[in-house]
Design a protein that fits this description.
heterodimer; A: mainly alpha; 0% strand; globular; B: alpha/beta; Rossmann fold; Alpha-Beta Plaits; 33% helix; 28% strand
Chain lengths: 263, 302
Amino acid sequence: MIRVFFAEWRKLRRPTLFFGTMGAVMAVTALVTSLLFLLLDSPRGNGREGRMISRQTLELAHGVSIGFSSAAGLLGLVALCVFAAQTAQEYTYGTLRNLLVRQPRRLTLLFGKFVAMKSFALITVIVSAVVAVGLAFALSDKANVNTAAWTTADAQWSLIQTFINVFISVVAYGTVGMILGILFRSPIPAISLGVAWLLIVENIIAATVKNSGKWMPGQAMTSIASGGDLNSSYLHAIALVSVYLAAGTILVAVLFRRRDVSN
Amino acid sequence: MTTIAISVKDLSKKYGERTAVSHASFEVPLGTVCGFVGPNGSGKTTTMRMLLGLITPTGGTGTILGENINHPERYLHRVGAMIEGPAFYPALSGAENLRLLATLGGYSVDQVQGLLDRVGLGDRANSKYKTYSLGMKQRLGIAAALLPNPQLLMLDEPTNGLDPAGIQEIRELLRALASDGTTVFVSSHLLSEIEMISDSLVMLRQGKVIFAGKTHDLLLRQQPIIIAKCSNSSDNVKLLEIAKTAGHEGSIIDNAAHILAAADWAPILNKLAFDSGITLSQLSPVLPSLEETFFEMTGDDQ
């Protein structure tokens, strides 16, 4: 498995992919965190889905990590695209047959790739955390937010919790991407279907069918990042995402193990 | 210790109602070069895929280097393969693509430059794969197949896209590998190449093995001919009549008599011609080439 991990990293460390992804992560994190502070007094809201996050809330210990957790949904989409592309490209390039000749244990190959991409996702979350927290401190003065509580032990603990939750959320998004990549065997349909579902279809269903939001995988993954929200509690979101991902993972593991590899 | 590199018995693969490979049985001895030939769609690549564990047979059994083909993990670390053409990551260099596969297979990455030199890609090692020509991609595929220092090398159309000099280099490379004891199982449309390098042949037609054995035995099985050229071309018809009277059919091709007869009848023909006052300027007994045999056996027209 360790050989698969290091082999996969030879692809992931490619400068265009690595720095391109990190650039995208920094950009979305900076955007979300900046809007949080710069639109603080805006009547249109400064949080996700137009929610208002007050100055008093930002001044609490967990205020330092709100920008970071708010960016989780977009980080998740980045992870979905990377996981889906890295998986589905093996089919479109025809490289899967090379990989399977060198590592015929298919589930080992799949798991090794997943762990490598998880470690890649971990780096994106670290980068996002650094940008979000750094920017929060930098913008606090301009937004007239008191940061006294941000340096307490409570704030550090809150940041660690948020980091873990965002990481779980991002990996969940990535796993969805990997599942779609194996199902569709081509990056374009895998990514477009994933993004369309999470950004459009889920929101339409949630807006039109009462109480449906709490059963939507995308909403639940975002809910995990913020430690639970109005749609569902943290535990409900974790349980729901676990069930969806377990079902999807079992399906694609069986498919990947049994499916013939041919053009 | 087995002496057979590849052994399959009744190997079959069906896709729905379509049979791609039907009850294929053959053996490839260790340390030989075996050509795998057949028309397009005859099941060569499907057979190779089954041997590499990429697709599951619907019937039959087989062993590679003494291990059951249902457990490719037991033998693939000793097998090098290039199947369905080269396939690599376009944005990685040739060397990095090889390093990736070496890492995955647990082989030393230090050998990568040497392998690239061996296939003539040493000076383009750090160029991106997407910038390679078809011939260079093919060479990289062969280098990747050599990564495990294989006991068995399976190559599917390795000379596709190569120029004549490249084809000759690959021929020499395969010969060198075979002389070092590597078993080479190679499919190609270039039958003259296969004829030059292979000790044995497996011939497929419509998913069925129609010949498996030594190349020389296959050619000996075919009807030999004697090509005779008369000094006076008007004597060709007369010569054909002499041959026909002696029980050998023939025809005139390119101003020469092609008579269906074994080599040992050539001196008799020479004497019969001389007795009839015909002077021969050429008399050569020949076996049909592999290409002619192939077309005859597979029923394909050129």
